Amino acid sequence: MAGSDTMSSENPPWYETDERGEILVLEVPKRLKSHPEIVRRGLQLEPVLPFKIGIVYLTSHLQPPQYVVKVLDTSTEEREIYERLWQAPSPHNHTIPGEITPPDAGHPILITPYLTDCSLTCVLKPNPSDTLGLFVQLLEGIEYMHTLRIAHMDLCPDNIVITSHLAEQPRPDLIPNRVYIIDYGSSRQLALGPGSQPAITIGPSQVYLVHPPGDLKHFDPYSWDIYCASHTMRQLFDVCFF
User: Fold this and answer.
1) Cα separation of 78 and 221, whole Å?
2) Is residue 123 located within the same domain as residue 214?
């Protein structure tokens, strides 16, 4: 039987534990289920396994179309970056559309459409021209962020999604066959643009999937994005054709 919500602070991860204090990874924490916006929308949530436990959830597959529900960490710039990018319409903007719950509705929650992982897209459509098209869109989105002096800092296949296989469009502003960039939890708004910004320290969570060359720990953040993008494209290319 479930015990109680536990968390180190107001910020995620939020966990449900049993009477021994062990985390119940298949349980949605009561605090999230009772969040005013989750209740108001009547959303039934499911955990996302094995990653992002206590942070990211999906709405039930029995309530299509599905959405991603993420408990935001207010110690990061994620909320400000999403809102800033949403307010900067451009054909080069590849930020996934969505919304963040209003300030008077409790802890901020991000709600975005649940889209297809780009790795799956490569498996289903192993066509060189399609794959190159994905890469062009990804680089276009990164370049656009950089013009706004935003560095993503965590580009990887898991943070690149696409609308190509949606049976039902959950939002009218989604563009078919478009690559979208997600997860700005590690992202930074910078004082200077590409070519002028000094190096910053890359955190341990940011090198978990992408090992920096020469074991370097300090990078121009814009260059780090490009390095991670090239690593991501190589992974997707390998999934498609090898």
Assistant:
1) 16
2) yes
